[in-house]
Amino acid sequence: MRVTDIPEAEAFILHWGEMGSHWGVNRSVSQVHALLYLSDRPLHAEEICETLGLARSNVSTALKELQGYGIIRRQHVVGDRRDHFVAETDLWDMLMRITAERKKREIDPTIATLGELAAKLEGRKDVPAHIRERISHMHTFIDRLATWYDDVRRLPKSTLVTLMKLGSRVARLLPGAGKKD
Question: Per residue in 67-78, pLDDT tens?
Answer without folding.
Answer: 999 999 999 999
